Amino acid sequence: MVWSQWIRRRALVGIVGLWAATGAPTAHAAGPASDAGQRITDKIGEADGARTDGRLAEAARLYGDAHALIQGSEEYRGTGVALDVVLQAARLYREAFKASARDYALCRESEALLDAFVADLRGRGQAVPSTVSDEQAWVAECLADAPAPAVPVVSEPVQTTPAEPTPDEPSTAPESTVVPPSPEPDDHPDPTDDTEPRGRALPIALVGGGGAAAVTGAVLLAVGLPLRARADDYRSEVLGSPEYLQRGPQDRAAIEAALGSYVDDERRRGVALMASGGAVLGLGVAAVIVGSIQLARARPGRRDRSARARLDPQLVLRPGRLSVGASLRF
What we know:
By secondary structure, this protein is mainly alpha-helical. Helix content is about 60%, strand content about 5%. A two-stranded antiparallel sheet has the order 1-2.
């Protein structure tokens, strides 16, 4: 679902830019439409960049800025572009809230954006989509769990005056005592003590790092594999939409060319991700095997270290096929 939303955002930037160059869906002057479309496209591009860098809250606010630009342009106000921008902002607010330490200010910002969008739809006599209602329901649940603001309680310090001893009473002040220093621990243990395992830091690092690399490689493979199919599905969705069918032949040809370029970019990106993922996965598996062997040989009491294991990772990339393997030699 997350990658599908990312693909839709990239295509949204391209199509808004195309509409800005060829004229908005409604009939207006080309100059204002181009200026408004370019500003909206730039703001969506900034939001997409922040989302890619992991700055979720900033990306959500940038999508909110893009919605404000759309609301100021009659060419895009009330269109599917406005709905997509608002939904992207609401979903990013939700992701940012889950990734933060329950920052309820993000829920309030999402609520304000959704309320403004719904008020505009109702003012124009349009129905509120169910997807927007779902996001409003989540915001209501989020704010229902928000704690009430705490009221600080300030207590004044109480000053006490120690009682002075009378002349007839002896002083009760404790006498000072000298505590001898405790002996320092022995930083140099007996070299003949073989109870603690030695030489285990590097094998543990190999196993841990190799496991993380293997997981990363598997994720890259899983991400890169479906990119081409998802891009083709989105192109089919756009080409079958009523908004596309209502446009003229020249606009259709331009949109088809933009979508074709987008699909080719996604295909190349998927191949690159799968190749990188395969290489990282192979190196990670190799590191885990070598680290496990060294851990086994570093057990307490084991003296035989004459044998050495060698692991040769193998990566074979052919058109339409990726093979990862390793050979272990003693």
